[in-house]
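Colleagues,

Please find the record for the two-part complex below.
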Amino acid sequence: MPETITIWVNGVSVQMAPESMVSAALLKAGVPCRRSVTGELRTALCGMGICFECRATVSGIPHRRTCQLICREGMVVESDR
Amino acid sequence: MKHADVIIVGAGPAGIAAATAATRHGRSVLLLDDNPKVGGQIWRSGIKAASQHADKREDARRDKVLNALASSSATLLFDYRVFDAPAPRTLHALRETEGGAEAVTLRYERLILATGARERFLPFPGWTLPGVFGAGGLQALVKGGYPVRGKRIAVAGSGPLLLAVAVHLSEQGAQITSITEQAPLAQLMPFVASLWSHPAKILQGIGYRSALRKTPYRTGCWPVSALANEVTGSLESVRFTDGNKTWNEPCDLLACGFHLVPNTELASLLGCTLRGDFVQVNDQQQTSVTNIYCAGEPTGIAGLDAALIQGEIAGLACAGQPTGFLLARNAAEKRFAKRLKSAFRLRPELRLLAAGDTIVCRCEDVTYEELAGRNEWTDAKLQTRCGMGPCQGRICGPATQTLFGWTPKSIRPPLFPVPVSALCSHDSQYDVLQENA
Protein backbone atom coordinates (compact mmCIF):
# COMPACT_ATOMS: atom_id res chain seq x y z
CA MET A 1 0.00 0.00 0.00
CA PRO A 2 1.44 3.43 -0.91
CA GLU A 3 2.37 5.88 1.86
CA THR A 4 0.00 8.52 0.54
CA ILE A 5 -2.71 8.87 -2.05
CA THR A 6 -2.98 11.90 -4.32
CA ILE A 7 -6.40 13.23 -5.23
CA TRP A 8 -7.32 16.40 -7.10
CA VAL A 9 -9.58 18.97 -5.46
CA ASN A 10 -10.60 21.76 -7.87
CA GLY A 11 -7.42 21.04 -9.84
CA VAL A 12 -5.08 21.18 -6.84
CA SER A 13 -3.37 18.01 -5.62
CA VAL A 14 -3.96 16.88 -2.02
CA GLN A 15 -1.94 14.14 -0.34
CA MET A 16 -3.97 11.85 1.90
CA ALA A 17 -3.23 8.76 3.99
CA PRO A 18 -4.65 5.49 2.62
CA GLU A 19 -8.29 4.91 3.66
CA SER A 20 -8.95 8.67 3.97
CA MET A 21 -12.38 10.05 3.17
CA VAL A 22 -12.91 12.55 0.35
CA SER A 23 -14.63 14.91 2.83
CA ALA A 24 -11.40 14.99 4.86
CA ALA A 25 -9.42 15.86 1.71
CA LEU A 26 -11.73 18.83 1.04
CA LEU A 27 -11.24 20.02 4.63
CA LYS A 28 -7.48 19.53 4.43
CA ALA A 29 -7.45 21.58 1.23
CA GLY A 30 -9.54 24.25 2.99
CA VAL A 31 -12.24 23.99 0.33
CA PRO A 32 -15.97 24.14 1.23
CA CYS A 33 -18.05 21.40 -0.41
CA ARG A 34 -21.05 23.23 -1.76
CA ARG A 35 -23.09 26.41 -1.94
CA SER A 36 -26.47 26.28 -0.25
CA VAL A 37 -29.66 27.30 -2.07
CA THR A 38 -29.15 30.90 -0.86
CA GLY A 39 -25.44 30.88 -1.67
CA GLU A 40 -23.76 30.11 1.67
CA LEU A 41 -20.60 28.03 1.53
CA ARG A 42 -20.93 24.82 3.52
CA THR A 43 -18.63 22.10 4.80
CA ALA A 44 -19.35 18.63 6.18
CA LEU A 45 -21.40 18.63 9.40
CA CYS A 46 -22.35 15.12 10.50
CA GLY A 47 -19.47 13.12 9.00
CA MET A 48 -21.68 10.04 8.62
CA GLY A 49 -23.83 10.40 5.49
CA ILE A 50 -26.90 11.96 7.09
CA CYS A 51 -26.79 15.73 6.52
CA PHE A 52 -25.81 15.95 2.82
CA GLU A 53 -23.69 19.08 3.47
CA CYS A 54 -20.55 17.35 2.16
CA ARG A 55 -21.90 16.84 -1.35
CA ALA A 56 -19.48 17.41 -4.21
CA THR A 57 -18.88 16.17 -7.75
CA VAL A 58 -16.54 13.17 -7.70
CA SER A 59 -15.25 11.57 -10.90
CA GLY A 60 -17.90 13.50 -12.81
CA ILE A 61 -20.82 12.27 -10.69
CA PRO A 62 -22.60 15.13 -8.89
CA HIS A 63 -24.04 15.07 -5.36
CA ARG A 64 -21.77 12.37 -3.96
CA ARG A 65 -21.66 12.29 -0.17
CA THR A 66 -17.93 12.72 0.25
CA CYS A 67 -17.96 11.63 3.91
CA GLN A 68 -18.84 8.09 2.79
CA LEU A 69 -16.35 7.95 -0.06
CA ILE A 70 -12.79 6.65 0.34
CA CYS A 71 -10.04 8.50 -1.58
CA ARG A 72 -8.66 6.59 -4.56
CA GLU A 73 -5.44 7.52 -6.35
CA GLY A 74 -6.04 10.19 -8.99
CA MET A 75 -9.66 10.87 -7.97
CA VAL A 76 -11.00 14.18 -9.30
CA VAL A 77 -13.20 16.20 -6.95
CA GLU A 78 -14.98 19.43 -7.89
CA SER A 79 -16.73 21.55 -5.27
CA ASP A 80 -19.12 24.48 -5.67
CA ARG A 81 -17.18 27.75 -5.77
CA MET B 1 -31.65 -9.67 -6.87
CA LYS B 2 -30.16 -10.92 -3.63
CA HIS B 3 -31.83 -13.13 -1.05
CA ALA B 4 -31.11 -14.31 2.48
CA ASP B 5 -32.93 -15.82 5.44
CA VAL B 6 -31.98 -12.75 7.45
CA ILE B 7 -31.11 -9.29 6.15
CA ILE B 8 -29.57 -6.89 8.63
CA VAL B 9 -29.48 -3.16 7.91
CA GLY B 10 -26.57 -1.50 9.68
CA ALA B 11 -23.12 -3.00 10.29
CA GLY B 12 -22.42 -1.37 13.65
CA PRO B 13 -22.17 -3.33 16.91
CA ALA B 14 -25.87 -4.34 16.97
CA GLY B 15 -25.86 -5.50 13.36
CA ILE B 16 -22.58 -7.36 13.77
CA ALA B 17 -23.78 -9.16 16.91
CA ALA B 18 -27.03 -10.07 15.13
CA ALA B 19 -25.20 -11.39 12.05
CA THR B 20 -22.84 -13.51 14.13
CA ALA B 21 -25.67 -14.98 16.20
CA ALA B 22 -27.93 -15.78 13.23
CA THR B 23 -25.18 -17.39 11.12
CA ARG B 24 -24.03 -19.47 14.12
CA HIS B 25 -27.42 -21.16 13.95
CA GLY B 26 -27.36 -21.88 10.25
CA ARG B 27 -29.19 -18.88 8.81
CA SER B 28 -27.95 -17.17 5.66
CA VAL B 29 -27.27 -13.50 6.39
CA LEU B 30 -26.74 -10.36 4.34
CA LEU B 31 -25.33 -7.52 6.44
CA LEU B 32 -25.72 -4.14 4.71
CA ASP B 33 -24.30 -0.72 5.48
CA ASP B 34 -24.34 2.61 3.68
CA ASN B 35 -20.74 3.24 4.76
CA PRO B 36 -17.73 1.71 3.02
CA LYS B 37 -16.56 -0.17 6.13
CA VAL B 38 -17.78 -2.29 9.02
CA GLY B 39 -18.08 -1.00 12.59
CA GLY B 40 -20.76 1.68 12.50
CA GLN B 41 -19.97 5.00 14.10
CA ILE B 42 -18.53 3.84 17.42
CA TRP B 43 -16.10 1.40 15.82
CA ARG B 44 -15.28 3.55 12.79
CA SER B 45 -11.79 2.51 11.73
CA GLY B 46 -10.43 5.28 9.50
CA ILE B 47 -6.80 5.97 8.70
CA LYS B 48 -3.91 4.57 10.74
CA ALA B 49 -3.09 7.14 13.42
CA ALA B 50 -1.12 7.08 16.63
CA SER B 51 -3.21 6.89 19.77
CA GLN B 52 -1.47 7.33 23.10
CA HIS B 53 -4.47 6.64 25.30
CA ALA B 54 -5.89 3.66 23.46
CA ASP B 55 -8.33 1.79 25.65
CA LYS B 56 -6.88 -1.72 25.34
CA ARG B 57 -9.83 -3.40 27.01
CA GLU B 58 -12.24 -1.76 24.58
CA ASP B 59 -10.02 -2.54 21.58
CA ALA B 60 -9.82 -6.19 22.62
CA ARG B 61 -13.58 -6.45 22.82
CA ARG B 62 -14.04 -4.79 19.42
CA ASP B 63 -11.46 -7.12 17.83
CA LYS B 64 -13.19 -10.16 19.33
CA VAL B 65 -16.59 -9.10 17.94
CA LEU B 66 -15.16 -8.22 14.52
CA ASN B 67 -13.20 -11.49 14.35
CA ALA B 68 -16.34 -13.46 15.15
CA LEU B 69 -18.09 -11.72 12.27
CA ALA B 70 -15.15 -12.30 9.90
CA SER B 71 -15.16 -16.03 10.63
CA SER B 72 -18.96 -16.26 10.22
CA SER B 73 -20.71 -17.01 6.93
CA ALA B 74 -22.40 -13.58 6.80
CA THR B 75 -22.11 -11.72 3.49
CA LEU B 76 -21.18 -8.06 3.97
CA LEU B 77 -22.49 -5.49 1.50
CA PHE B 78 -21.08 -1.98 1.87
CA ASP B 79 -22.21 1.23 0.14
CA TYR B 80 -25.77 -0.14 0.05
CA ARG B 81 -28.37 2.45 1.02
CA VAL B 82 -31.86 1.10 1.58
CA PHE B 83 -34.33 3.60 0.12
CA ASP B 84 -37.58 1.68 -0.27
CA ALA B 85 -39.58 -1.32 0.86
CA PRO B 86 -41.87 -1.76 -2.17
CA ALA B 87 -43.44 -5.09 -1.15
CA PRO B 88 -43.47 -7.47 1.84
CA ARG B 89 -40.05 -9.05 2.49
CA THR B 90 -38.47 -6.81 -0.14
CA LEU B 91 -36.07 -3.88 0.07
CA HIS B 92 -34.59 -1.69 -2.59
CA ALA B 93 -31.08 -0.41 -2.01
CA LEU B 94 -29.05 2.13 -3.96
CA ARG B 95 -25.53 1.17 -4.78
CA GLU B 96 -23.35 4.00 -6.08
CA THR B 97 -20.00 3.23 -7.61
CA GLU B 98 -17.62 5.27 -9.72
CA GLY B 99 -19.23 3.57 -12.71
CA GLY B 100 -22.71 4.82 -11.86
CA ALA B 101 -25.72 4.08 -9.68
CA GLU B 102 -27.93 1.00 -9.59
CA ALA B 103 -30.90 -0.13 -7.54
CA VAL B 104 -30.64 -3.62 -6.08
CA THR B 105 -33.59 -5.72 -4.93
CA LEU B 106 -33.08 -7.58 -1.66
CA ARG B 107 -35.44 -10.25 -0.34
CA TYR B 108 -35.58 -11.59 3.19
CA GLU B 109 -37.53 -13.92 5.43
CA ARG B 110 -36.65 -11.88 8.49
CA LEU B 111 -35.24 -8.38 8.73
CA ILE B 112 -33.20 -6.84 11.54
CA LEU B 113 -32.98 -3.05 11.68
CA ALA B 114 -29.74 -1.94 13.31
CA THR B 115 -29.74 1.56 11.87
CA GLY B 116 -28.11 3.30 14.83
CA ALA B 117 -28.41 6.93 15.80
CA ARG B 118 -27.27 10.33 14.61
CA GLU B 119 -26.41 13.51 16.46
CA ARG B 120 -29.06 16.04 17.36
CA PHE B 121 -28.20 19.49 16.02
CA LEU B 122 -29.82 22.64 17.36
CA PRO B 123 -29.66 25.86 15.37
CA PHE B 124 -27.91 28.90 16.82
CA PRO B 125 -26.50 31.93 14.98
CA GLY B 126 -23.42 30.81 13.05
CA TRP B 127 -24.05 27.04 13.20
CA THR B 128 -23.89 26.78 9.39
CA LEU B 129 -20.41 28.37 9.17
CA PRO B 130 -17.51 26.35 7.77
CA GLY B 131 -15.58 25.25 10.86
CA VAL B 132 -18.67 24.26 12.84
CA PHE B 133 -19.11 20.49 12.94
CA GLY B 134 -21.05 17.90 14.85
CA ALA B 135 -19.06 16.53 17.79
CA GLY B 136 -19.18 12.95 16.56
CA GLY B 137 -19.10 14.49 13.11
CA LEU B 138 -15.69 16.06 13.60
CA GLN B 139 -14.38 12.86 15.20
CA ALA B 140 -15.51 10.88 12.14
CA LEU B 141 -13.89 13.38 9.77
CA VAL B 142 -10.61 13.27 11.73
CA LYS B 143 -10.66 9.46 11.63
CA GLY B 144 -11.22 9.95 7.89
CA GLY B 145 -7.93 11.84 7.57
CA TYR B 146 -8.73 15.49 8.38
CA PRO B 147 -5.61 16.72 10.22
CA VAL B 148 -6.38 18.83 13.32
CA ARG B 149 -2.90 19.02 14.87
CA GLY B 150 -2.40 22.45 16.47
CA LYS B 151 -6.00 23.53 15.92
CA ARG B 152 -7.90 25.08 18.83
CA ILE B 153 -11.19 23.21 19.16
CA ALA B 154 -14.16 23.96 21.41
CA VAL B 155 -16.27 20.87 22.17
CA ALA B 156 -19.83 21.67 23.20
CA GLY B 157 -23.40 20.44 23.37
CA SER B 158 -24.56 17.50 25.41
CA GLY B 159 -23.98 13.84 26.11
CA PRO B 160 -21.22 11.42 27.03
CA LEU B 161 -19.96 11.54 23.45
CA LEU B 162 -18.43 14.99 24.07
CA LEU B 163 -15.73 13.52 26.34
CA ALA B 164 -14.88 10.73 23.92
CA VAL B 165 -14.61 13.22 21.07
CA ALA B 166 -12.41 15.59 23.10
CA VAL B 167 -10.03 12.75 24.02
CA HIS B 168 -9.76 11.60 20.42
CA LEU B 169 -9.16 15.10 19.05
CA SER B 170 -6.57 15.80 21.71
CA GLU B 171 -4.76 12.55 20.85
CA GLN B 172 -4.58 13.78 17.28
CA GLY B 173 -2.74 16.92 18.42
CA ALA B 174 -5.63 19.37 18.70
CA GLN B 175 -5.77 21.83 21.56
CA ILE B 176 -9.16 21.41 23.25
CA THR B 177 -10.06 24.86 24.58
CA SER B 178 -13.01 23.61 26.64
CA ILE B 179 -15.70 20.96 26.92
CA THR B 180 -19.10 22.54 27.52
CA GLU B 181 -22.05 20.39 28.67
CA GLN B 182 -25.47 22.03 28.71
CA ALA B 183 -26.82 19.80 31.49
CA PRO B 184 -26.37 21.27 34.99
CA LEU B 185 -24.15 19.34 37.39
CA ALA B 186 -27.09 18.48 39.68
CA GLN B 187 -28.83 16.76 36.77
CA LEU B 188 -25.68 14.80 35.88
CA MET B 189 -24.85 13.64 39.42
CA PRO B 190 -27.38 10.76 39.73
CA PHE B 191 -26.05 9.42 36.41
CA VAL B 192 -22.42 9.67 37.49
CA ALA B 193 -23.27 8.01 40.82
CA SER B 194 -25.10 5.19 39.00
CA LEU B 195 -21.97 4.38 37.01
CA TRP B 196 -20.67 2.54 40.10
CA SER B 197 -22.94 -0.30 39.04
CA HIS B 198 -21.21 -0.33 35.63
CA PRO B 199 -17.49 -0.59 36.50
CA ALA B 200 -16.35 -0.74 32.88
CA LYS B 201 -18.14 2.50 32.09
CA ILE B 202 -16.59 4.38 35.02
CA LEU B 203 -13.10 3.16 34.11
CA GLN B 204 -13.73 4.61 30.67
CA GLY B 205 -14.85 7.90 32.25
CA ILE B 206 -11.73 8.18 34.41
CA GLY B 207 -9.59 7.49 31.36
CA TYR B 208 -11.31 10.34 29.56
CA ARG B 209 -10.72 12.82 32.36
CA SER B 210 -7.06 11.95 32.88
CA ALA B 211 -6.34 12.45 29.19
CA LEU B 212 -7.73 15.99 29.46
CA ARG B 213 -6.36 17.10 32.82
CA LYS B 214 -5.86 20.69 31.75
CA THR B 215 -9.08 21.14 29.78
CA PRO B 216 -12.01 22.81 31.55
CA TYR B 217 -15.16 20.65 31.64
CA ARG B 218 -18.01 23.06 32.23
CA THR B 219 -21.52 21.95 33.08
CA GLY B 220 -24.65 24.08 32.90
CA CYS B 221 -23.19 26.16 30.04
CA TRP B 222 -23.98 26.20 26.36
CA PRO B 223 -22.99 27.91 23.09
CA VAL B 224 -25.16 30.83 21.98
CA SER B 225 -23.43 31.79 18.73
CA ALA B 226 -20.48 31.02 16.47
CA LEU B 227 -18.70 34.07 15.09
CA ALA B 228 -16.81 34.37 11.81
CA ASN B 229 -13.81 36.49 10.98
CA GLU B 230 -15.10 39.39 8.89
CA VAL B 231 -12.30 39.09 6.32
CA THR B 232 -11.82 35.32 5.94
CA GLY B 233 -15.40 34.31 6.75
CA SER B 234 -14.15 31.35 8.77
CA LEU B 235 -14.91 30.56 12.39
CA GLU B 236 -13.06 32.75 14.86
CA SER B 237 -14.76 32.35 18.22
CA VAL B 238 -17.74 30.89 20.02
CA ARG B 239 -19.88 32.80 22.49
CA PHE B 240 -20.95 30.78 25.53
CA THR B 241 -23.31 31.46 28.40
CA ASP B 242 -24.09 30.01 31.82
CA GLY B 243 -27.50 31.66 31.78
CA ASN B 244 -26.22 34.79 33.55
CA LYS B 245 -23.01 35.95 31.95
CA THR B 246 -21.71 35.37 28.43
CA TRP B 247 -18.16 35.19 27.16
CA ASN B 248 -16.24 34.68 23.91
CA GLU B 249 -13.83 31.85 23.44
CA PRO B 250 -11.43 32.06 20.47
CA CYS B 251 -11.14 28.80 18.53
CA ASP B 252 -10.49 27.43 15.05
CA LEU B 253 -13.20 24.77 15.09
CA LEU B 254 -16.36 24.04 17.05
CA ALA B 255 -17.47 20.44 17.57
CA CYS B 256 -21.06 20.64 18.74
CA GLY B 257 -23.84 18.07 19.06
CA PHE B 258 -26.73 17.71 21.48
CA HIS B 259 -26.72 13.99 22.28
CA LEU B 260 -28.27 11.49 19.87
CA VAL B 261 -31.50 10.81 18.01
CA PRO B 262 -32.44 7.38 16.66
CA ASN B 263 -32.51 6.55 12.95
CA THR B 264 -36.08 5.28 12.64
CA GLU B 265 -36.94 6.30 9.06
CA LEU B 266 -36.71 2.79 7.61
CA ALA B 267 -38.66 1.30 10.55
CA SER B 268 -41.41 3.89 9.95
CA LEU B 269 -41.49 3.16 6.24
CA LEU B 270 -41.89 -0.56 7.02
CA GLY B 271 -44.87 0.20 9.26
CA CYS B 272 -43.20 -0.64 12.57
CA THR B 273 -44.94 1.02 15.51
CA LEU B 274 -42.95 3.73 17.28
CA ARG B 275 -43.29 4.49 20.98
CA GLY B 276 -42.32 8.12 21.38
CA ASP B 277 -39.20 8.59 19.29
CA PHE B 278 -38.19 4.93 19.36
CA VAL B 279 -39.09 1.68 17.64
CA GLN B 280 -41.28 -0.44 19.90
CA VAL B 281 -39.92 -3.96 20.44
CA ASN B 282 -40.75 -6.92 22.69
CA ASP B 283 -38.15 -8.85 24.71
CA GLN B 284 -37.11 -10.71 21.52
CA GLN B 285 -36.40 -7.33 19.84
CA GLN B 286 -39.37 -8.05 17.57
CA THR B 287 -41.22 -4.98 16.25
CA SER B 288 -44.97 -4.69 15.65
CA VAL B 289 -44.32 -6.28 12.22
CA THR B 290 -43.79 -9.96 13.02
CA ASN B 291 -40.82 -10.72 10.76
CA ILE B 292 -39.01 -7.43 11.47
CA TYR B 293 -36.70 -6.97 14.46
CA CYS B 294 -34.85 -3.92 15.70
CA ALA B 295 -31.75 -3.66 17.91
CA GLY B 296 -29.56 -0.95 19.38
CA GLU B 297 -30.11 2.81 19.38
CA PRO B 298 -33.39 2.93 17.36
CA THR B 299 -35.06 1.16 20.31
CA GLY B 300 -33.60 3.57 22.90
CA ILE B 301 -30.30 5.47 23.20
CA ALA B 302 -28.39 3.02 25.41
CA GLY B 303 -24.90 2.75 23.93
CA LEU B 304 -22.53 -0.02 22.93
CA ASP B 305 -23.28 -2.71 25.53
CA ALA B 306 -27.01 -2.57 24.87
CA ALA B 307 -26.40 -2.70 21.10
CA LEU B 308 -24.29 -5.87 21.40
CA ILE B 309 -26.81 -7.62 23.66
CA GLN B 310 -29.87 -6.59 21.67
CA GLY B 311 -28.19 -7.49 18.38
CA GLU B 312 -27.44 -10.96 19.73
CA ILE B 313 -31.03 -11.34 20.97
CA ALA B 314 -32.40 -10.31 17.56
CA GLY B 315 -30.03 -12.66 15.71
CA LEU B 316 -30.91 -15.59 17.96
CA ALA B 317 -34.64 -14.83 17.76
CA CYS B 318 -34.47 -14.81 13.96
CA ALA B 319 -32.79 -18.22 14.10
CA GLY B 320 -35.52 -19.59 16.41
CA GLN B 321 -33.11 -19.89 19.34
CA PRO B 322 -33.78 -19.12 23.03
CA THR B 323 -32.80 -15.64 24.21
CA GLY B 324 -33.89 -15.78 27.86
CA PHE B 325 -30.32 -15.90 29.17
CA LEU B 326 -29.70 -12.38 27.81
CA LEU B 327 -32.82 -10.69 29.18
CA ALA B 328 -31.41 -9.69 32.58
CA ARG B 329 -28.40 -7.99 30.99
CA ASN B 330 -30.63 -6.22 28.50
CA ALA B 331 -32.86 -5.00 31.33
CA ALA B 332 -29.81 -3.60 33.16
CA GLU B 333 -28.74 -1.73 30.01
CA LYS B 334 -32.25 -0.32 29.63
CA ARG B 335 -32.04 1.05 33.17
CA PHE B 336 -28.74 2.64 32.20
CA ALA B 337 -30.46 4.19 29.16
CA LYS B 338 -33.15 5.70 31.37
CA ARG B 339 -30.53 7.38 33.58
CA LEU B 340 -28.65 8.56 30.50
CA LYS B 341 -31.81 10.16 29.14
CA SER B 342 -32.62 12.03 32.30
CA ALA B 343 -29.00 13.15 32.88
CA PHE B 344 -28.65 14.75 29.45
CA ARG B 345 -32.18 16.17 29.22
CA LEU B 346 -32.05 19.38 27.18
CA ARG B 347 -32.55 22.67 28.99
CA PRO B 348 -35.41 24.91 27.73
CA GLU B 349 -33.06 27.83 27.01
CA LEU B 350 -31.69 25.89 24.00
CA ARG B 351 -35.00 26.51 22.23
CA LEU B 352 -34.32 30.24 22.27
CA LEU B 353 -30.89 30.28 20.63
CA ALA B 354 -31.96 30.76 17.00
CA ALA B 355 -32.43 34.35 15.84
CA GLY B 356 -35.07 35.24 13.26
CA ASP B 357 -32.63 34.90 10.37
CA THR B 358 -30.92 31.75 11.69
CA ILE B 359 -31.23 28.91 9.20
CA VAL B 360 -33.02 25.89 10.67
CA CYS B 361 -33.34 23.69 7.55
CA ARG B 362 -29.86 23.62 6.03
CA CYS B 363 -30.92 21.86 2.83
CA GLU B 364 -33.52 24.46 1.85
CA ASP B 365 -32.16 27.42 3.89
CA VAL B 366 -35.41 27.93 5.78
CA THR B 367 -35.03 30.42 8.64
CA TYR B 368 -36.44 30.40 12.16
CA GLU B 369 -38.80 33.31 11.45
CA GLU B 370 -40.26 31.54 8.41
CA LEU B 371 -41.06 28.54 10.61
CA ALA B 372 -42.20 30.34 13.75
CA GLY B 373 -45.69 30.99 12.35
CA ARG B 374 -46.36 27.42 11.16
CA ASN B 375 -48.61 24.98 13.03
CA GLU B 376 -46.82 21.69 12.58
CA TRP B 377 -44.37 19.71 10.46
CA THR B 378 -46.54 19.10 7.39
CA ASP B 379 -47.69 22.72 7.34
CA ALA B 380 -44.06 23.84 7.55
CA LYS B 381 -43.08 21.50 4.71
CA LEU B 382 -45.87 22.70 2.45
CA GLN B 383 -45.38 26.39 3.14
CA THR B 384 -41.60 26.69 3.46
CA ARG B 385 -39.96 23.51 2.01
CA CYS B 386 -38.49 22.80 5.47
CA GLY B 387 -37.45 19.14 5.56
CA MET B 388 -37.89 18.67 1.81
CA GLY B 389 -34.24 18.79 0.77
CA PRO B 390 -31.88 15.87 0.30
CA CYS B 391 -31.54 14.97 3.99
CA GLN B 392 -35.34 14.62 4.11
CA GLY B 393 -35.66 16.28 7.50
CA ARG B 394 -33.06 14.16 9.28
CA ILE B 395 -31.31 17.29 10.61
CA CYS B 396 -34.12 19.89 10.83
CA GLY B 397 -36.73 17.33 11.96
CA PRO B 398 -35.21 16.75 15.41
CA ALA B 399 -34.35 20.48 15.55
CA THR B 400 -37.95 21.57 14.96
CA GLN B 401 -39.10 18.88 17.39
CA THR B 402 -36.99 20.57 20.09
CA LEU B 403 -37.82 24.14 18.99
CA PHE B 404 -41.53 23.83 18.26
CA GLY B 405 -42.57 20.39 19.52
CA TRP B 406 -43.35 19.16 16.00
CA THR B 407 -43.36 15.46 15.16
CA PRO B 408 -41.96 14.68 11.71
CA LYS B 409 -44.33 12.32 9.90
CA SER B 410 -45.24 10.92 6.50
CA ILE B 411 -42.04 8.97 5.90
CA ARG B 412 -42.22 8.02 2.23
CA PRO B 413 -39.95 6.43 -0.35
CA PRO B 414 -37.38 7.15 -1.50
CA LEU B 415 -35.86 7.63 1.97
CA PHE B 416 -33.22 9.88 0.38
CA PRO B 417 -32.52 11.11 -3.17
CA VAL B 418 -32.01 8.36 -5.73
CA PRO B 419 -30.90 9.03 -9.33
CA VAL B 420 -33.63 8.28 -11.88
CA SER B 421 -31.09 6.17 -13.79
CA ALA B 422 -30.91 3.84 -10.79
CA LEU B 423 -34.69 3.62 -10.49
CA CYS B 424 -34.80 2.61 -14.15
CA SER B 425 -32.19 -0.11 -13.72
CA HIS B 426 -33.31 -3.62 -14.57
CA ASP B 427 -33.27 -5.14 -11.11
CA SER B 428 -35.65 -2.60 -9.65
CA GLN B 429 -38.02 -2.57 -12.65
CA TYR B 430 -38.19 -6.35 -12.76
CA ASP B 431 -39.34 -6.33 -9.19
CA VAL B 432 -42.05 -3.73 -9.70
CA LEU B 433 -43.36 -5.60 -12.77
CA GLN B 434 -43.54 -8.81 -10.73
CA GLU B 435 -45.50 -7.09 -7.99
CA ASN B 436 -47.97 -5.56 -10.43
CA ALA B 437 -48.46 -8.73 -12.47
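Chain A has a mean pLDDT of 95.

Comments are welcome before we finalize the supplementary table.
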